[in-house]
Amino acid sequence: MTRRQKRMLLLAVLAAGLAGATALMLSAFEENLLYFYDPTQVAAGEVPPGARFRVGGLVEAGSVQREAGSLRVRFVVADCANRLAVEYTGILPDLFREGQGIVVHGRLDGQGVFQADEVLAKHDENYMPPEVVASLNKSPGQPCMPVRMRKSP
């Protein structure tokens, strides 16, 4: 093998290693991305099957059901147009309540119920995550934003 062939082989091995490392890094990056969807996008089937994602909206009034003797909670997250049933097992944040804007992380199960592994209700009662505000303002017609969250004209 000539000296030139050895250099070319070394460059080829380095390029293959760099390509492999880049592929692994992009794969890990893609797995850790959590895309945000609103209940309307989930109802429209825009979520890839089996994907872990975030969904946000308002906790529908009268929808919170706690299972006796466990930390299992069922509730409905809604935007102006659609509703999504959510199940969560764990301790809910202090600011979680009906009518509150929340974001939940998890996956859809086979029955179309969102199995949450994390529930976020951030900051104070006057704060709503920007994704949820954008989702609630998307629908034309009557606003469904809670009265305390609406800005006066």
Low-confidence stretches: none
- Overall 3D geometry? elongated
H/E topology pattern: HEHEEEEEEH
Mean pLDDT: 85
What's the total count of β strands?
Answer: 7
Euclidean distance between termini CA atoms: 79 Å
Largest beta-sheet characterization: 5 strands, mixed, barrel
State the helix count. 3
Order of neighbouring strands in the sheet with most strands:
2-4-5-7-6
Structure class: alpha+beta
**Share of residues in helices:** 25-40%
Q: Over all CA atoms, what is the radius of gyration?
A: 22 Å
Per DSSP, what share of the residues sits in E-state strands of 2 or more residues?
25-35%
Explain this structure to me?
This protein is α+β, with helices and mostly antiparallel strands. Helix content is 29%, strand content 26%. A five-stranded mixed beta barrel has the order 2-4-5-7-6.
Question: Which structural traits does this protein have?
Answer:
alpha+beta; five-stranded mixed β-barrel; about 25% strand
Short description:
It contains 3 helices and 7 strands. The chain has helices at 3-32, 39-43, 130-138; strands at 36-37, 53-59, 65-66, 72-78, 83-89, 101-108, 114-120.
